[in-house]
Design goal:
Helix content is 67%, strand content 4%. With 215 residues, it is mainly alpha-helical. The protein has one domain. The strands form two sheets. The protein has a two-stranded antiparallel sheet with strand order 1-4.
């Protein structure tokens, strides 16, 4: 997720006991919650994928549901972006989530040969990963450091790098009809999702002193 200084306060390192975790009236809270749920889906599904006995249809659905949460969060973020740089990064991120929607939706299907799997599942996954990497980099270089928003951007950039590694390793080789490395692909997705989850959690709470006063 793209983070800006306007979406999180500089004192994100404050005591969690003094923070307001329930702010459904604010967009950054929804972005954090939605991204966290989506990242959780990806982390759980990719981690469980390491076992051959794991139910593949269920994992496919979990990935797809997670991508929908990503897209919803990215749309909210695009709507509330203010500066030109924020809007560009958020737009690229939103497009990336749409690629992940396509990839995970196609990934729920079975019976593909290597060429079909690469075209319908791997290709949109790669484009989505590229979009996330570009978006995260734009956010990272635009933020002042050290700041809470910059730390979130750093986590997102690291997560995007892991997603990119996962995408490369997930290429299905025609000679074997197997991924280049399923282990690396799953590990990369898990690590990337955990980075996104950590960044999303940092968006959710706000120091109570700065929270809106109840009317």
């Amino acid at each position: 997720m793209v983070s800006t200084d306007s979406q999180i306060t500089p004192d994100a390192g404050a005591d969690l006991g003094e923070r307001d975790w329930w702010r459904p009236g604010e967009a950054d809270w929804w972005m954090g919650v939605l991204f966290a749920i989506g990242a959780s889906c990806f982390a759980v599904a990719s981690f469980v994928s390491q076992w051959a006995s794991a139910p593949r249809p269920g994992l496919g659905v979990t990935f797809f549901v997670g991508s929908i949460f990503f897209t919803t969060a990215a749309f909210v973020q695009l709507r509330v972006s203010v500066t030109r740089a924020d809007k560009l990064a958020s737009l690229i991120q939103f497009v990336g989530t749409l690629f992940f929607n396509v990839s995970t939706f196609e990934g729920m299907k079975r019976g593909f040969d290597a060429r079909q799997a690469d075209l319908r599942v791997w290709t949109p996954d790669v484009f989505g990963s590229i979009c996330f990497l570009v978006s995260s980099w734009l956010a990272y270089v635009a933020l002042r450091r050290p700041s809470a928003a910059w730390r979130i951007a750093a986590l997102n950039l690291l997560g995007s790098v892991f997603f990119g590694i996962s995408a490369v390793a997930a290429l299905v080789e025609p000679s074997t009809s197997e991924p280049v490395s399923a282990a690396i692909a799953n590990a990369g997705t898990t690590a990337g999702a955990l980075c996104f989850f950590a960044g999303a959690l940092m968006l959710i709470p706000k120091p109570q002193a700065l929270a809106p006063t109840a009317q």
